[in-house]
Every structure is written in structure tokens, then in C-alpha cells.
What does this fold into?
Amino acid sequence: AGPSSLSRFRGALVGALLGDCVGAEFEGTEEVPLDRVLQHLDGLEEENRGDGILQYSDDTAMTRCVVQSLLSRSEFDVSDLGRRFAEEYRRAPLRGYGAGVVQVFKKLLSPRCADVLQPAREQFGGRGSFGNGGAMRAAPIALAYPQTQDVIEFSRRCALLTHASSLGYNGAVLQALAVHFALRGALCSGGQYLELLIGEMESLEREEKALSDARELNEADFPYCTRLRKVKEMLERSDVSVEEVVMELGNGIAALHSVPTAIFCALHCLSVRPSLPPHYSGVQRTLAFSLALGGDTDTIATMAGAIAGAHYGMEQVPASWQRCCEGEQDAEEWGERLHKLYQSRALGG
Ligand code: R7I
Ligand code: MG
Ligand code: MG
It folds into this structure.
């Protein structure tokens, strides 16, 4: 797939959907043996599997709101997006939302809510959430805006509706940037791709609030940059076990313990992995490896799937897997519409 080609846009949205749908099976399971992962994935290829049999979770429910808001408003519209999140929660509250974020939705649904960003600021005793719920829905921002500065600004504002801690919204910015640079074909450069991400994150983590939030949570200064350097170092090792990835990068519900992990999964699976079936495409390897980490599998796989899909394009997404996901046709169609929007903005339109 050529840089910024249509195939990459569809791949990113379908890859994200697949990650969520196949990952839901193992979410919250700490140890997931690889043969269980492969068995689960093999099941998707059976002829008689019903279409759309795998339901998506909150990760995709919120991603869909972001896409629909981006497609229906001419400019990024945070109030419209907040309304969509809250309405979607009201319509289908049982998609597996984080325990804290539902308070935000309830406040957004109240007629007394005047400032859409206020409920998020009140989370967790006024510190705001550091969960990965901002990051899990960040990919569409990268598909709608060709300029790096726009990707940063709008992914941050998209996350701020629910995640007011810098550890939460900077995780969302990092995930959006990871998709943004992958769309342009930068993933294959490995180390240089990470340097691009570190360069952008360094200026964001230098901000006053980022420094004070990190200290308050007993994290090192520049927490995302620190983790991205760790990713770089781990990629240089000849092989890395699942246990090492979990121990050194994490597999949890905090954005800091899952976004760098997802980026690692995509980079690690650029080459053939001896433990995975040799006929697997890059997208399939990335998803299988993400699930084998256990923990927050739907979210790590949805983020890694978006990055991998943006890199490899639709050619590497098996049709049989895609068909198993609820909402797969929307994902493809919206990939196409976002591609048009991106192109028109790239041309200065
Ligand atoms: O981040 P969020 O939307 O959750 C996303 C996750 C994904 O795995 C989805 O697939 C779904 O399962 O949920 O929801 P939040 O409630 O904002 O954050 C998630 C969790 O992180 C919270 O329920 C807390 O357990 C934890 N958390 C915090 N704990 C203490 N102090 C987030 N921020 C804090 C905090 O500041
Ligand atoms: Mg989920
Ligand atoms: Mg999850």
C-alpha cells in the first residue's frame, strides 16, 4: 500500500475493530496461553460462523462516535462529540465501559451540564482519569487530519472529554500519532519511527501539567518518552518473551501501561514470529501477539490493530476475520469517507 492510500485508511479502522472484537474474549485474563489465542482466531475461519458474531465493546462504540462526529461536522466539534458519547452510552450502556467513565456520561446527559469538559475534570478526586479510554478511540483523528499539529490538538481535545489527567490524554495523543506516522509508511523504519514519536511527545511532556501529574503519580518525568525508549531497547533484543513485555511495558487499563505496549506489538510483529503460524499476515501476527499478552486485551489489540492496519492496509486483513465483526461494513465505508476528508484537507481544501 502506498503512503496515505485508501487501503491504509480502511485497514486502520477495520484493524481497530478486529482488535476490539477478537480481544474481548480475553479482557481481564492475566495469563492467556498462545494456543488458546490461536484456537480462538482459527475459529474465525470456519465456514459456518455467523456474520457479525463477535460484538464490539466500548472501545469501538466510542471510536464510532468519533468517526461520526468527524464526518458530520466541518470542524472538530467537542460539544457534538460529548453529546454522541453520552447518547451512545444511554442507548447501549452494557458495552463494558470503564468503571469511572460512566459518571462522566451521566453528568453529560444532565441538562445542568454547561461545560462539556467539566465532568472529566471531576473524575478521581479532581485529578482526572489516566485510563486508556481516550487512547482506544484516538485512531480516527489521525485519519481525518493530515497535519501533525492538528492530530495532536484534536486527539487531545477528543480525550479531554473523559480523561483530564495528562497521563490519560497524552496516551491518546501518542496513539493518534502512532497511526498518523504509520499511515505515511514510517513504521518500517522501526527506530526512526520511535524517534519521531519521542520527538513529539517530548514537547508535550515538558508542559507544566504533564510534569506535575507524573510526579503526583510517582512516575518518572517524561513518562511516555521513557517508555518509548524502553520499546526501542526491547526491539533491539534478539527475542522478547510475553512475560518481559508485560513486566517492562505493562498490559493494564492505564494508558501509560498499554499505549506503548500496543506500539511495541505492531513493531515487534513487523517480522515473522517463530511462535505464530507462518501463513499469518502482519495484521494477524500483531493481533495474535497482542491477545497473548493478556490483561486489557481488547484495548491493546484495538490500538495495535489500528497501527498495523494503517501500515499494511486492507490486503493483510483476512476477509473471514473481518466478516465476524459487528459493524464491519461501517468500518470499511467510514475508512473511505475519512480518506476523502483527509485528502481534501491535505490539498488545503
Ligand atoms: O479509561 P476508561 O474509559 O476505561 C477504558 C477501559 C478499556 O479497557 C475498555 O475496554 C474498558 O474495559 O475500560 O475508563 P475510566 O473509568 O476513566 O478508567 C479506567 C480505570 O482506570 C478506572 O475504572 C480505574 O480503575 C482506573 N483509573 C484510576 N484509578 C485511580 N486513580 C483511572 N484513573 C484513575 C485514577 O486517577
Ligand atoms: Mg472494551
Ligand atoms: Mg479494554
Observations:
- The pocket of magnesium ion (ligand 3) is lined by residues 27, 296, 298-299 (CB under 6 Å).
- The mean pLDDT is 96.
